[in-house]
Amino acid sequence: MPKPDYTSLDLPEPPGDRPYVLLNMVMSIDGKVVIEETEQGIGSAVDQRLMRELRVNADIILNGASTLRKSGSSPRLGGIQELEQIRAERGLTRFPVVATLSASGNLPLERIFFTAGDFQAVIYLSEVAPEVRRRAIEATGRSVVTVPRGGEVPSMLRHMRNELGAKVLLLEGGPTLNAQFFRENAVDEVFLTVGPVIVGGSDTITPVEGTPYLRATAPRLDLISAVPLEESGEVFLRYRVRH
Ligand SMILES: NC(=O)c1ccc[n+]([C@@H]2O[C@H](COP(=O)([O-])OP(=O)(O)OC[C@H]3O[C@@H](n4cnc5c(N)ncnc54)[C@H](OP(=O)(O)O)[C@@H]3O)[C@@H](O)[C@H]2O)c1
Fold first, then answer.
1. Which residues have C-beta within 8 Å of that of residue 185, sequence separation ≥ 6?
2. Could you report the per-residue pLDDT of 2-60, keeping only the tens digit for each?
3. Ligand 1 center to 1 CA (angstroms)
4. What pLDDT, on a 0 to 100 scale, did the predictor assign at position 88?
5. Which atom of ligand 1 is nearest to the CA of 104?
6. pLDDT tens-digit profile of 164-204?
7. Which residues line ligand 1 (CB under 6 A)?
């Protein structure tokens, strides 16, 4: 079977108060999303390609601050001209906007998230963030949007939809932020790559952290597609969340 094509997803109109949310993660066979502190080494080049194909559909991409600190965060398309071309033909900006959410304001200001000139970045900062850190982030020239304590995720989503006009958000982890999106009932589809590797360990994290659900309230999903790829040994899964 050939790899899936994620460049042209048929997505419904978003709700009025948030973008339509796609979650994309890569996971080992034993259900882990990090090896030696980052996701690198779990997915293949094909998985990387699909991650970029998903970005073609997105108006905005989001990572939690911990992922930004550990792995970096960028909306670029890996220099793949064909993907940039598709966005251009659809009248979209070259790259989606990239965003992060933080309460501490402890962010790696030397990363391209803050320094690159070829994409826009937005920092959603909780009102509890120390003022000195807020000022340091603002000094990078990036947009900082204050979100209220306890209501950070819904407030951020409303801003994305209503102020930035974002229709499609691609959530690229990590698991702490993913958990909050599920709690807010704000994940519409899950793209999950299963990579043929074992990570092991009892303290290695899985795609969704946070407090466990009860059987009766656990989010349930419907399978849209499952594509095995012999060359990389991966399986590419796409699910829709039942709301
Ligand atoms: N396999 C994969 O596909 C994949 C994808 C993404 C990431 N990862 C891995 O996942 C790891 C990081 O995941 P993680 O779960 O530890 O962290 P995370 O979800 O990336 O980020 C958590 C951080 O986001 C901020 N945050 C989350 N909710 C918030 C809220 N309601 N209000 C304000 N700030 C909020 C906080 O930042 P502050 O601490 O700044 O307050 C929090 O510490 C990394 O090792 C990364 O490599 C793997």
1. 219, 243
2. 999 999 999 999 999 999 999 999 999 999 999 999 999 999 999 999 999 999 999 99
3. 34
4. 98
5. 41
6. 999 999 999 999 999 999 999 999 999 999 999 999 999 99
7. 25-26, 33-34, 37-39, 42, 63-67, 70-71, 101-104, 106, 126, 152-153, 172-177, 180, 205, 209
Cα-trace Rg, the chain: 17
Q: How far apart are CA 206 and CA 200, in angstroms?
A: 11
Testing ligand 1's pocket by substitution, the residue of 107, 176, 203, 234 carrying the most ligand atoms inside 8 A of its CB is 176
Residue 1: pLDDT band with limits 50, 70, 90 = confident
Q: What is the pLDDT, as a whole number, of residue 163?
A: 98
In a domain, 112, yes or no: yes
Closest ligand 1 atom to the C-alpha of 177?
Answer: 19
Angstrom distance (rounded) from CA 207 to CA 174:
7
Residues 6+ apart with CB under 8 A from 5: 53
Residue 116 is predicted with a pLDDT of: 98
Take atom 34 of ligand 1 and give the residue whose Cα is closest: 102
**What is the pLDDT of the chain when averaged over all its residues?**
97
Closest alpha carbon to 56 in 75, 74, 79: 75
> Could you tell me the CATH number of the domain that includes residue 27?
3.40.430.10
Nearest CA to ligand 1 atom 27: 177
Confirm whether 102 is domain-assigned.
yes
Provide the domain limits for residue 184: 20-241
Neighbours of 222 (CB within 10 A): 9
Q: How far is the CA of 209 from the centre of ligand 1 (A)?
A: 10
Number of domains in the chain: 1
- From the alpha carbon of 68, which atom of ligand 1 is closest? 20
Q: Is 10 part of a structural domain of the chain?
A: no
Q: What per-residue confidence (pLDDT) applies to 167?
A: 98
